[in-house]
Amino acid sequence: MQDFSEFIDSLTSGFTPVIGGDYKQEDYAYIDLSENNRDLLKLEVASAEAFSIFIEEYLWNRKAKAAYGGYNELRTLYQRSELFNNEAANRNIHIGLDVWVPAYSDIISPLDGKVHSFRDNDDFGDYGPTIILEHFENGRKFFTLYGHLSRASLQDLKKGDKVKAGQKIAELGDFHENGDYAPHLHFQIMEDLQDKDGDYPGVVRKEDLDNFLKNCPDPNLLLKI
């Protein structure tokens, strides 16, 4: 069987939006939020508002409208949350793709699919409102996750609802409802959902990284930003 990463890469031939509106490929700027980014050391990362200003200035300086990045990225910013920063968890490696755009931006599905599950993961530092779609392409089932949404996005949603590629499925939330982050989409691909419902780890321990990377390939293989 074809490697899952290669399979995901084969599904699209060019830039495939997950943010609605008039964003073009050239409107995106890559951002490094790893421990190697010295600018983060000067920032109060516990403040969603301060982080929002940091993102806005980053985009302004690069004449960009959106920022993206974060796959397989070791981050220190999770130290602010007990959800990740405790002896049992010790999770600090991000395995989704973050797309930083304004709150209430439209989120669209890059592929045909259906609603698998959804939940408001409302712990501090968690996803907040989250939707997982199930897809079936070329005889293979897999899943995509959309985190940090608005609570309104979950209203009237039903498991099994069909979605088309390019269809609006949600809106981004602001920091009051998205787990207390600067507005951004956490987008992730999973081959095996491992019986999860409305949730799946997006930040993992180094000890578990290899298995998660096999199950969760780089989402930019699909989006091709």
TrEMBL record:
Domain M23ase beta-sheet core: 93-192
Regions that span the bilayer: none
Molecular function, one GO term: metalloendopeptidase activity
Keyword flag Signal: yes
Signal peptide span: none
Key word Transmembrane helix present: no
UniProt name for this protein: Peptidoglycan DD-metalloendopeptidase family protein
